[in-house]
Amino acid sequence: MTDADLIARYDGRVPRYTSYPTAPHFHGGIGAEAYAAWLAALPSDAELSLYLHVPFCDRLCLYCGCHTTVAHHERPKRTYAQAMAQEIGLVAATLGRRARVSHIHWGGGTPTALPNGCLAGLMDLIRARFDVKADAEIAIEIDPAALPAEKLAALGGIGLTRASLGVQDFDETVQKAIGRMQSFEETRAVAEGLRRQGVTSINLDLIYGLPYQTEASVTRTAWLALELAPDRAAVFGYAHVPWMKKHQKLISEAALPDGPMRLRQEAAIRAVLEREGGMLPVGLDHYALPSDAMAWAARAGALQRGFQGYTTDSAPVLIGLGASAIGTLPQGYVQNQPGIPAYEAIIAAGRLPVVRGVALNDEDRLRRAVIERIMCGLAVDLPAMARDFAAAPDALLAAAAPLSGFAADGLVEWDGATLRMTPRGRPFMRNVAALFDAYLPAVSDQPRHARAV
Question: What pLDDT score was predicted for residue 445?
Fold first, then answer.
């Protein structure tokens, strides 16, 4: 079967499975009261991971699907930072102790869009209200073209251990089409500067499927990326959802590559990272050096997947801080108010800003585990997984019936009980995971999801 045939058969719109149930199934029945009860019920020795969302950028990138806005003045950013500080206090007070923290991730948006001193002040507050482990990973997402020297120097003071640099593509034609001009030289300067500040791990984000990209152009970008000596790389397919992100309407659809071309671009980047960079494929779309903790976790079957993508973080609780941030607790998922003014108003009233979420039942937990093993380990033994959850395997095996077709197309190996993704099937991993999503048929607005490839 040709690539075009595979695309025609499988390239529908399916969730990215950074949670299960997925975010479209969150609802207003889970709010601040439920969140407070869930926090209070956590075991006293439960380790936490913190995610801090900064919904500001210094420029509008047309491809972006994040909850963010361009703000050129300091005042709204400082007001927002103050609200985040209050939320940190509310969460700590609800927990009633200096809970242990093993992982801190700053995302956005562009976290470094906050004024000088805000990041450091919030980190100081976190260390005062939580017991941050000495070896905690502290990670941040960075736009290299929006990081002046004084902010780069300030990052060294907050204990960063890992930084993710948004590259996307180094081709100027592509950059102009997506509103993101960024030279290789300034990207290299930021990477080298971060290493001088003590950051020990550098990640790069690349995107295929952007306007005017070709196999040759993405191959060149991948080669340039290797010159930056990254420890990890993420290779995402551009999700064109202009009905959800209005600014994407400024991207010419005629300039977007078709499905087979997207698949070839993904393969071209993969070939460079694996064959020339010596990186190992991790999960759906990540790559890591064999010595990196993510590669170790993948080999050990300990890789995790959450709202920040693939991670080595094994904390059972993720606390989301900031507008739109999502948290994960044993009881379920919660999401903060996404609107910045509304978020700040809730915080000012002294309330936790959670406005939606979903509670997990036993069936959810079983299916979530199956989907995570597919997405992280590329294989799962369905009867064994059911036994682990004291459940009968019948429903899982019934959901797996279409796997015979996937196997005939060379995308999986399937013996009636255990499935394993093949190298050819890796780009279609989300299609396989979707077979076990009991909620997906109930979603009427399928275009809310990104294309499978």
Answer: 45
Q: Give me the helices (H) in 20-97, please.
A: 32-40, 74-95
Q: What is the pLDDT, as a whole number, of residue 442? A: 53
Residue 452, phi then psi, degrees to nearest 5: -65, -35
Asked if 292 and 201 touch (Cβ cutoff 8 Å), the reply is: yes
d(CA 193, CA 107): 20
Residue 63 has pLDDT above 60, yes or no: yes
Nearest residue to 222 via CA among 155, 289, 271, 292 = 271
Give the CATH number of the domain where residue 401 resides: 1.10.10.920
Whether 347 is in a domain gets the answer no
Phi-psi region of 301 (alpha: psi -120 to 50; beta: other; left: phi over 0): left
| Residues 288 and 231 sit within 8 Å (Cβ to Cβ) | yes
150 lies in the same domain as 235:
yes
Split into its structural domains, the chain has a count of: 2
Domain boundary among 290, 321, 352: 321
Closest CA to 175 of 102, 233, 121, 255: 255
What does the block give as tokens for 181? 């001009």
- CA angle in degrees (0–180, nearest 5) for 159-164-167: 145
> What percent of the chain has pLDDT above 90?
82
Question: Looking at the predicted structure, is the pLDDT value of residue 452 above 80?
Answer: no
Is 340 among the domain residues?
no
CATH number at residue 221: 3.80.30.20
Are 145 and 182 a contacting pair, CB within 8 Å? yes
Whole-prediction pTM: 0.94
- Domain of residue 416 covers 361-438
Is 5 strand, coil or helix?
Answer: helix
Comparing C-alpha atoms, which of 64, 4, 427 is closest to residue 210?
A: 64
pLDDT per residue as tens digits for the range 2-57: 888 888 888 777 899 999 999 999 999 999 999 999 999 999 999 999 999 999 99
Residue 148, pLDDT > 50, answer: yes
| DSSP state at residue 238 | P
3-state secondary structure of 1: coil
